[in-house]
Design brief:
Strand content: 5-15%
Largest sheet: 3 strands, antiparallel
Strand order of the largest sheet: 3-4-5
Oligomer: single chain
Structural class: mainly alpha
Number of domains: 2
Distance between the termini: 31 Å
């Protein structure tokens, strides 16, 4: 059961790191992650699923949020709106050339590309090992803090059955050693 919890925590941390890197990239072009999610959806959906209601359902968002997002994307020229030929009340959305070009450019900035290449040559015995390696590679590639737990840190020390943080020069309780630390430096990276 603990292994399952640890695997979930790794997936959660990888997701957080990826979203953080995406937010930085999108902010540089004046967009938010939700804008790119809508563009991605519209690039993949068919004619009966390209409506604002379908976008809201697929992304699990309110109609109001989707409406505001669509307005931003229209103003920036990334999507186009058209009325249905048979029922004028139905609105269809499509990527403009500019929107398709933007998605192509963003795909080239994939935050997983370097990590995937680095991991492709390794074999792992567990999913946890593979995810740990993926997380470390993503963190190094993106110069992100690891926020790991004390007992996996190069600053962690055990002296006479007592735990200590050598960086802060403070004693640690057993509970402390299982907490996330901003100053974490993975022992496996420090040795490399």
């Amino acid at each position: 059961m603990q292994e399952l919890k640890d695997t979930f925590k790794l997936i959660e941390r990888i997701s957080t790191l990826v979203r953080s890197e995406e937010r930085k990239k999108y902010a540089a072009i004046g967009l938010q992650p939700i804008h790119i999610q809508v563009l991605n959806y519209l690039s993949r959906c068919n004619w009966c699923s390209d409506t604002p209601v379908a976008v809201a359902e697929y992304l699990g968002l309110t109609k109001g949020t989707v409406s505001q997002t669509i307005q931003v994307l229209e103003r920036k020229g990334y999507i186009e709106r058209s009325n249905d030929a048979e029922d004028g009340r139905v609105v269809h959305l499509a990527l403009s050339r500019s929107g398709a070009r933007l998605l192509d450019e963003l795909a080239a900035l994939d935050v997983f590309a370097q990590a995937e290449n680095a991991l492709a040559i390794k074999k792992y015995s567990t999913l946890g090992d593979a995810l740990n390696s993926m997380l470390r590679t993503l963190q190094m590639t993106n110069n992100a803090r690891t926020f790991g737990v004390c007992n996996s840190c190069t600053h962690f020390d055990e002296i006479d059955n007592h735990y200590q943080c050598d960086l802060a020069q403070v004693p640690l309780s057993r509970l402390d050693t299982e907490k996330i630390c901003r100053e974490h430096k993975p022992a496996d990276i420090a040795a490399a």
